[in-house]
Amino acid sequence: MADTAREAGSSPGTASQRDQHPEKGTAQSSQTAASDTSSSRSEPRPHLHAKTFLAVFAICVIYFVQIYNVVGSGAQTNTIAITLGNGSTADGVWLSSSIAIGTAVLSPIFSQAADYWGRRWFLVLSTFIGAVGSIIVARATSMNMVIAGFAITSISYGAQPLLHAVSSEVLPRRYRSWGQAADLIANGLGGITALLCSGAFSRTSNVPSEGFRKFWYLGTGLFVLATVLCFVFYNPPQTERERSFSFSEKLGKLDWVGYFLLTSGIVLFCIGLSWSENPFPWSNAHVSATFGVGMALIIALAVYETFFKKDGMFHHGLFKSRNFPIALVCLFCEGLAFFSANNYFAFQVGILYETDALLVATRYSVAIIVSIFSAAAAGMYCAHYKRVRWITVASFCVFTAFFACMATSGVGFDTEVWGYPVLLGTALGMSLCVLVTIAQLSTPPELIAIATGLVIGLRSLGGSVGLAIYNALLNGALNHLGDNIAQAVLPLGLPPQSVGPLIGALADHHEELIPKIEGVTPQIIEAGVYALKETFATGFRRVWTAASCFVAVAAIAACFLKEEGKEFTMRIDNPIEKEEELYSDVERAHHA
């Protein structure tokens, strides 16, 4: 009972009063729009100072370096595979997958624990661990060492929900969308920096394939910078929960059974999917058993959190509004969309259209640049009009259009593919900004970290599942690569004994070996390269088609969102400044 009282005491008064008197909440929700407007105008307006804005800036720097690392993991996959993986891209999916899995697994854990120990040290320490992982990647001597480096770096992404939570809770609720827009602007700048550095380092290195090392040396420095800025500028006061419980009581509050089921279930589930057609068929026990056990653990997690643990990672207080589960579905699909574009757009451009790494990066950077402006526009729209439903629907319709365009592209679509990233960037900026705002405003203020942990975790889970599915679809097409090349070159007179070496040289990107193969002519080389590109194009079309189906589902789900205009108030749920700094004497009396 004492614990319950202390939990209640840590929540803001307005939220707890609404929970205790639901009939009042019903009456309030039926008030006219004029009454709501009058009430919002009479609210005291907090006066924010540099301390708040510097804290948000430090959070944005962390987001900048996280996206730098994520985008680099996609853009540099081929380079790392050629350098350390003997040309094979089979293990390349684990570079981005390790980040996605780490985010999905650790986000809810970090978010719940941060409610009892505070946000600051989770942000500072996890970001420093990102620096450790980056230096391992930069100095890697094998593909396994690279994957290990990314796995360590993925720990820093467990704090990603806290970035979204802090950006919202230190600002007035009405301007939460601005906080999310700031995060996404940092996101976009980090993505552009990653793409341009990736292309430039590969272009200017004495050994182009070694450019990835410079990329992650720079990433190490950025992680260290972000760690220092967060330590200096983000120093919030302790909350009631931090002060009220002893260390052992805090440990008892955590959802240990849920953590075990979540971690083991997601890891096995994603490994099983990633192994499908890479290299095992579904009938192989490596795939079916691993996938089946992972699914069983995830089902057990759902049962446990539904019937046995009502205040754990999936706190039942989060689901009082239908907007929160809808936001979860939409963000899961948005994760599927983002990771498909992040991993396969530059991949397709590099295989089918461009040989210059900088031009490949420039094409994808168009989407990132557009996302900065669309995120800013979405944030201002939500803050001004207090509406979220149709802008969310529109964002997923634009996503669907992008993937439909990409699904119709092929070897001869060099010019058209320059324009498609505009659609991608528009959708990316709009969707994440609005959906995180929806999720946070539809849940009690004291559960903002847990709520954000779930939405970011589900988004990353979508990415993990999506990457495994897309990898299987692409590999299914590439399994026919050898046959397709053979069918293209044998009728042109290539000796049968030369077919194997030609296929190997083309598949492993060893162009310097091709002229040395017996019987090869320029016409045969051209036919072989065209067959290789067409095979890849078939695999890419499968990826884009699958992604378009996922985002279409999200567009339909978003139609059922409920407008929550009354939640866009001037209240700050967890200010970093003292009350006397935010309000004048008269305003404090009114606020009290």
Automatic annotation (TrEMBL):
Region Disordered: list its residue ranges. 1-45
Q: Please give the name of this protein.
A: Major facilitator superfamily domain-containing protein
Q: Could you tell me the keywords of this UniProt record?
A: Membrane, Transmembrane, Transmembrane helix
| Keyword Transmembrane applies | yes
- Main localization (coarse): membrane
Residue ranges with Low complexity bias = 26-41
Q: Domain Major facilitator superfamily (MFS) profile, which positions?
A: 55-566
Gene Ontology CC annotations of this record: plasma membrane
- TM regions (residue ranges): 52-72, 92-110, 122-140, 146-163, 184-203, 215-235, 256-275, 287-304, 324-344, 364-383, 390-411, 417-438, 447-470, 543-561
What the entry lists under SUPFAM superfamilies is as follows:
MFS general substrate transporter
Which Gene3D superfamilies does the record match to this protein?
Answer: MFS general substrate transporter like domains
- UniProt xrefs under InterPro entries: MFS, MFS_dom, MFS_trans_sf, MFS_Tri12-like
Where located?
Membrane
Give one GO term, molecular function aspect. transmembrane transporter activity
- Pfam families for the chain: MFS_1
Organism source for this protein? Neurospora hispaniola
Question: What topology does the record note for this protein and the membrane?
Answer: Multi-pass membrane protein
